Sequence to fold (226 residues):
Amino acid sequence: MAAAISPYSSTEETTNANRACRLLLGPCTDQLRDVLRKEVPPHAFAFEISKQKLNLPRLNPEQRNLILPNIGSYSGNYDDFDISLLYILLRNICNIKPHKIGWGKVPDVNDVCLSANIERVRLARNSTVHSASPSLANSELNDIWTSVRFAVVEMDSFLLNGNYYQREVDLLRHTTMDPVQDKHYRDQLTKQYADDQDTKECIRTLEENIGIYQRKTTSRISLLKG
Fold:
């Protein structure tokens, strides 16, 4: 008799959800941090946040303790900020013009302004994190990816970073989500092409890219609760 399939087993749909989470936790969050760095250099943050604190909406205790501590001033770095806090700061303490529909609303599909693209990342984050299901259909993932990639491309242009985050997003779209399979295929490639210097260089680059995303995802997974 065949063993029963657990309702919690990994499926293509749960892999889709994990891929979307990695997209948002990784390149999307880092890109928004870079936008904030450009708008408010880190050395000026403590002064700017004290000046603009009355313009901030109600912060949750964790956010308030982070950027407005009771004793002293914020002395960390922007790597502490998750998407929800980044959105609050970009919207309220930076001189970023609202998109045509207005902050907090779904932007017009053809709107390429900075605030519209920040909004697209926030909406993708909300639809992924707040979903009652731990899975995403292929069509849902494609919709999220299309919207987010559009935003990432436009924000790369704003940052003048040589399309850095676009390349990271494109890499993540098709990289495997299974670390066991990762190791299996890397071992097989290494064995079959050990004497091929070009292939070994490709393998090294692939391992570095996978390792970077795995470390970032592990260190940031708690930030989705923000």
